[in-house]
Design goal:
Structural class: mainly alpha
Distance between the termini: 97 Å
Helix content: 55-70%
Mean pLDDT: 77
Low-confidence stretches: none
Radius of gyration: 34 Å
Length: 114
């Protein structure tokens, strides 16, 4: 477990350093994102291989049994039917009429003689 915690801290420090380097323009933003993604991917693989703590497993089992014990409340069907009846059915919209475009009058020319 010590290795996992050390790896998590190292990834955290590395991600911060990559963000700072990208912010300062030392490396490109996408390059930093790619490197962070690879680091986190490796960390996740390490976490998957590490044995889970006994306490966490016990809590997970306990939570699953509580979920299984709770009966789900039934939804009233009458309300759903009433809502379906209350909504009007969609009708096809009539095609829109083409708008007539008004032609703008040409600007008046000013006579220089007048």
């Amino acid at each position: 477990m010590g290795d996992l915690k050390a790896a998590q801290e190292a990834v955290k420090v590395a991600v911060t350093a990559l963000d700072k380097a990208a912010e300062k323009g030392i490396i490109q933003r996408n390059n930093a994102a790619r490197r962070k993604s690879r680091l986190v991917k490796k960390l996740n693989q390490l976490e998957a291989l590490a044995p889970a703590p006994v306490e966490a497993k016990a809590k997970a089992v306990e939570a699953e049994t509580k979920k299984a014990e709770k009966p789900k409340a039934e939804k009233p069907k009458a309300k759903a039917k009433a809502k379906a009846k209350a909504k009007p059915k969609a009708t096809k919209a009539e095609p829109k009429k083409a708008k007539e475009t008004k032609k703008k009058a040409a600007p008046k020319k000013l006579d220089a003689e007048a």
